[in-house]
Amino acid sequence: MIWSLSLLLPLPLAAQWTLFACAANSKDYVVGAKLPASGLFFDKKGEWTHAGYNHPFLAALDYDPSDPSTIYLAAGNGLIRAAKNGTDWTILTGSDVTELRDVAADRRDPATIYFAYSHGIRVTHDRGKTWQELAGKLHRKYAEAIRIDRDRPRVLLTGGEEGIFRSEDGGHTWQIAGAAGIPILRIEQSPHDACYWLATSQGAGLFASNDCGKTFENIGRIGVGRNLYSIAFDPTDVKRIAIGGWGPGVAVSEDGGKTWQERNAGLPRPEVWSVVFDPEHSGRIFASVQQEALYVSDDAGKHWKMDGLEGSVARQMKFVPK
Amino acid sequence: MRYFLLLLASCLIAQAAVPPFQARADAMIDAYAHYSGKGDYGYAEIAARLKRHEQPEWCSRRLQELLAAGPTGDMFWMFPMTAIAYLDQGQLSEPARDAMHRVWKTYMPYRGDTENHFLLYYSCLYLMSQLWPDAGPTDWYTGKSSQENMAEASAWIESWVKLTTTRGQGEYDSPHYMGVYLLPMSYLAAWAKDPAMKKRAEMMLDYLIADYAPENLDGLYVGSHARVYEDQLVEKWNGVSSDFGWLWFGLGHPLKVPANYVLYYLLASAYEPPEILRKIATDRSRPYTHYERKRTRNRWRFHDDLHGPVYKTTYVRKEYAVSSDQGGELQPIQQHSWDVTWHVADARGVQNTFFFAQPYSSMRELQTYLVFPPDGAIEGIVKSKKTYDSPDKILGGSPYEKIVQDQDALVVLYDIPPGTRFPQINGFFSKDLAEVKEDPSGWIFMRGGESTYIACRPLQPYSWKAFADGSRRLFSPWLQNGVVVQAAPTAEFRDLEAFSQAIKALELTFSLKPTPSVAFRSLRGTQIELTYGQTPRLNGKPIDYAHWPLFGGPFLQADVDSGRLTLRYGANERSLDFKSLTVQVR
User: Fold this and answer.
1) Whole-model pTM?
2) Which of A26, A53, A94 sits opposite B152 (nearest CB)?
């Protein structure tokens, strides 16, 4: 029922969310070495709690819209279903995919899950029993980001080595949508306006679409020459958007992306991997700072304080409905 | 007659000095089973003692202690556990066995991001699933049943064997990682119940050993290598290959403490290569050129093909070896593209090698082969590969290096774009080179050991920088650059002066702008022509890379995509057909 409601409203009515983070304590880790607690964490009444296995390589997470206690993880070992609030793991993929980069579960069809990985894009329509490759017609297969248009069935956006691509047929064919030749690091759809999308890039800044992801244009100079890793729309404020990156740190727009202010006062360094707004507290935002910790701000980034997961790199954070 | 008797006696003495295979194997196992130093070797000591059927109570107790402390090591943890499980054979206590079983549910090893990681991971997962065939999804960290684990693992192992025997190995000819490929094959050869899997692994042991045999000099793995560590690069004896060269063929000297790769190899199949491989590995009575085609590691970005070809040439004679690939960025971080390696009676502590490198360090290289984000990646690599981002490094391939080799002559050209992070070349001049003479002609002449003269002609001015160990770095900071190298046996010349006169008499013309280009008539009479960015020519004919064999030369022959490797020595022949999983011996 929760997932069907979420189709009608951008935000669930029930004001109960859990913040999950894909985080690694990898400062002194190389493959084969002892790994401090890493993998999936969730915020349990203000305490960060490790869920499931220790894993050095979680790039992204999403949840099953029909059962949000089931988390999907884009992991080094494959696409992982972490049921029971992230504690009960099953690897849903085999030896043919590795080093997953992003995951998106279809809010309309809980059996459909997409992931982006080192050599393409895959989809399942049966909750991971079988998978199809979707990047066959892309010139370069590497895919860093994948998102499903929540309003338009079978419309997908992906970003990889050569820009932003859009599909209207569930990933069987792709058309370039913008940032041609530019590596894309993250794509997100606004929760307020389904036709407004943002994409971050390696070196070329921020790209926006106002036509449902059909075309993207570079906006402003924020992050140009640096790398932007994360986009967060504030679910409680239609005009507020944040991005996270190396160089700008956390940059916030209060006018829907027209202008940006870097808000790093209290952060140990402007090297930010991920940002996310709290849907229950307007203006509360979390940021992961390179090998420092998660930080939280209650005034949309004007002031920050440490929140936990010290020493970590959190590649993605997401609020998941309880 | 007197000469013949002396020769016979010396052969007998030499043979007597090298213990037989089984004695060499036993000594390596005992180094772990009977370790008497401080502490213990952990899992390796447990496995070695189980092999020896010694101290089972200690093995059980220590195993439980180690498991209680929490497993670490990702897929590298899996291979000792698998060995212990198969060597148990009723020796371990029930609590120890239960603890071992439970941990495959409570610990999820990271599968890693290289072929050696995957091969370890899947070989061990296959064998452990075979051991517990009725285990269900709740018994495994994968959340899959034993049957599902085995199906997944066997599919990957079979695909790797097929790819390797048709297109070459990805992490090819590594003096270190060769052990990580031999180990899983030894396990599967010993413990796989499926006859096809067992046979495939047995044949791959022959294949991997054959890959090493013609490219060793006194047991040392001569370049080029997909992956090598710096201590093995300058002191070749330091590689795991020294353990295997000693074990298989009695060549050289094993490492002070044998690497655990050779231990686990011995704890499983302990495969002793057939006589034909021993002959190929040890007969250096006549010079030969050996060819191999390999492939790059997975290239996730910036290339249309997942794997690119690697073309290797290796010239070997008893005095020295010269080996190279075609140059370019073929592997990330640890590539070594060419070297000259000379014979020494005892290579321990000796830097008996000569080479150059362009110290390339770039995010693009890392992002080609790894899924790193653009920030923090180089710092992350430097944690374990200390010199990756150092201007004085001598390890690593470069996209700005092109190489051609004919027998014991090499021409290497560099065309480095402006703005490149370290716009220079570094030449490694070992502390063990003798008679190094900088000639006014521009040539540098030197002697390696007692057997080898080397001539080196840098094409641009240079200066010298000292390494702490007494070796030197030739530093040449020019964007268009190159080096011509010619090796020769000392026995062919009266002295270094005669060698240098012979080299200076050779035709050498070159230009560096706008594009580096060299024409060199080698000591063997071959006209070698290389213009940067163009196909090299030997005696006027362009090198035919399209028909480069998977293996070629007097000892090993295989065509690309054939899945069939033939070993030849004299009238003896051994053919490995991986499509039919058959071995024919003639």
Assistant:
1) 0.95
2) A94
